[in-house]
Fold this sequence. Notes:
Elements: E1 3-4, E2 20-26, E3 32-38, H1 42-51, E4 55-61, H2 70-73, H3 81-97, H4 101-111, H5 115-129, H6 134-139, H7 147-159, H8 162-216, H9 225-259, H10 262-272, H11 279-300, H12 304-314, H13 318-332, H14 337-344, H15 349-361, H16 364-420
Antiparallel strand pairs: 1-3, 2-3, 2-4
Amino acid sequence: MVKACRPSTQIPGSEADVPFFEYRARNAQGQPVNGRLEAASRDTLASQLMRDGITPLAIEPVANFAKIDLGRWFGVTRVSAEELVMFTRQMHTITKTGIPLISAIRGLASSMQHYLMKQALEDVADELETGMELSAAMGLHPDVFDDLFIGIVSVGESSGRLEEAFDQLSEYLLRDMETSKRIKSALRYPGFVMAALALAIVVINIWVVPAFADMFARFDTQLPLPTRILLGTSEIFVNYWPYMLTLLIAGTFAVRRFLQTPQGKTLWGRLKLHLPVVGDLINRGSMARYSRSFALMMSSGVPLPHALGLCAKVIDNPYLGEKIEAIKMGIERGESLLHTHSNSEMFTPLVLQMIDVGEKSGSVDVLLREVAEFYEREVDYDLKSLSDKIEPIMIVIMAGFVLILALGIFLPMWSMYSVQA
């Protein structure tokens, strides 16, 4: 019989701890049974449960304190792109070499560091043991595997080319991850500059300008306009900073809540494409992602309307997602790819010509890959020249701030010097 769980007298987290396992199972009547028991190994516990007429569904070792995933407790539940790329590469190797899928996935789960990914793979293995297909089992975890991922795996299963599906997913995720990283890296510099400038404005208005204000108050003359503006701004910061801080926090919270709504996401998606300097870069990055994901699904055999529907869901811009949905509806009405893509006003004439050639030659997936590479090359070029475009703007902004500060402080001093002279 299975030994009941009892408190361990050994040091928590040590290697000598008695192994305990949490399990989910069903009894002979089909009712769910959960518990925590002691056993030598997972297989031993499974055998003992089955001898007692209990069918185990999932058996998890109780984590030692040293192995607790801190991300789980601090709310960091998103699986990174790097982990998904590594997982798809491992699955490509597993399916290519013919390793039994269930045991292989359990082995991958045991090596995963991220709690959510680990739990998802354990559940996938459990569902596979019940006879569920791999794509359906992965579909139970949309927080780990998105619609595109599930769609490609499903097509790979039905066509008997699962290893090719994971290979394509690996390449797609890797390219998508690299493009996203390059864009974020390029936007990091102006973000830091603007944050430093905002901090400097707060410090100067609260601590620096008031020191000069006491000196200017002794001047028996009207202060210049830049000085009055500077003193008025400083007075607002000094006297009303609690209200300003409250308004900033409330405004930030309200904006974040609004951007989580469908209308807010669509509005922000549209505004991002019209931001100065970086808007066009973001647009081309999104187009590269759409073209590559569409090409991936076309080459995998996903039906055209379904492929477009998946692209609308996985693209990182809800505004563009609505345009892709319009393309899908046009295809369902019998319109051509060229006509629907032209009406979307998302693509340049050169890209539309490539789509037209691909549609006429029956090689849309090949031409879409060319479109994706075309956009990715443009993104790479824009990223290399982005700093050259942003630096002059940053210099002008900082120079304007310094000029206002200098005029506001030094003009009264020059006036006083002129009077004394």
